[in-house]
Amino acid sequence: MALAQILVDHLTFAYEGSFDNIFEDISFSVDTNWRLGFLGRNGKGKTTFLNLLLGKYEYSGTIITSAAFDYFPYPVTQGQMTLSAADLLEQWKAGCEPWRVLVELDQLRGNAEMLYRPFRTLSPGERTKVMLAVLFSGENDFLLIDEPTNHLDQESRENVKTYLATKKGFILVSHDRDLLDACTDHVLVLNRKSIDVQTGNFSVWWENKQRRDQFARAENEKHAKEIDKLRQSAAQKAQWADRNERTKIGFDPVKEHDRSISTRAYIGAKTKKAQSRVSQLQKRIGREIEEKEGLLADLEEPVELKLMPLRHHKERLLHVRELSAAYEGAARPAFSNLTFDLMQGERVALHGENGCGKSTLIKLILQRAGMGKTVQETCVLPGQPESATVDAARERVQETGDLSGQQKNSAGMGLPAIESGVCEAAAGLVISYVSQDTSMLKGSIQAFCKARGLEESLFCAILRQLDMDRVQFRKNMEDYSEGQKKKALIAASLLTPAHLYIWDEPLNYIDVFSRMQIERLLLACQPTMLFVEHDVRFREQIATKTVEF
Prior knowledge:
3 domains, Rossmann fold, five-stranded parallel beta sheet, 16 helices, 38% helix, six-stranded mixed beta sheet
């Protein structure tokens, strides 16, 4: 596409009825031939900004550009799910030519059949490939790509990464560090109080940011020492001025024979000068504090999260031998001949393409751990005597995903109809579960915590540590962004003492900074985990063992 600029000048925007501005007096510019990575905490306004470029909302300030925009993902209604992508081309992109789409689809390692099958029959990876092929089939659009790899397996992510690395002229919203490093040559970052536009990929920006943060901390210490000295000096001069002010009258002529009434004016003048110095010092202190606060405005200081895993009396928590499972009427089994053990302290990653049976295995394990079992075994909670029972912990444990009430009803879990092999969970195993699905989150935080036996103040404290603004606590949870909903599920899991933490794609939509926080937490607390996560950086950092499907 022809080179153009997008100029943003004094942009301010807030949603109608919102408590605060999403953007406030921000200005920056970007070129439309860049491969621009767009970063920021959840709820900072990344998708909102893309919608502002598309002209969907009114705002104050100006956005000046000659570029035409197109947006991923394209909307697909429930009624359109029975249609093929070929039937939807004109609705998605006016004037779209099928042959161009097929060329792009081939580069994405897709095939023509994807374009003509009912859309509902396509996997998440196939849908992404088709939509990206349509998106890039034009010639002069500047493309707005909003989190294309959520719910995609590793192979599909690699295909998208390789494809986008050959393109230019787009803004890519993503929290996948590997994708951002491979596909971007500039970054646009929504900091806490400012906007940062910089040359380079995510790793280059992050390295520069760490250097800036280190400098800011050093400057902060210097300012703090200077402020302390100024305050001490101001206090001394204020005391001296007050003491002298009191000597203007009422002196003893015997003890102070060198004093006379004529000295009153002299003492008053000296006191006035001292008070003036105190006033000047106070102003300087104010300037130093203001400079110090400005210096730290964009500093990322993630609070260290905490987790209190339970200790089980058995070392082996899961035992799986030659396990196979299939759904009734399915052409092939969900998985077959799966064998592994999960020992206490291990963090096991389930890895494989979408549809290979990872979530099915999780359902089977949840069923084995929770159906028809009583919990009377003894366990040790950190800081508690060994006589503490799991019963007490069980009262505080709940699923943080979409299996509420389903452990009592295997049919409600969507379990496979045909199963062979061994799948055993240790007796009395307490599990904290985070589901892929967030659709069950509705109503207030207060109702959510009450229904799950969580301490509301602690729950909100963890959300604050994950950088969720307090204003969000007044909203209903269905109005949260997807990233904020995921944080709510993770916060609930962190509050749940458990022997085993099962997290099914927990990082979808979660921002980069929170991912790093969670990584540090898991490495520090070392809970026993079984998880599915396609973020390759997270998996490499956290997993002590990988089970390949």
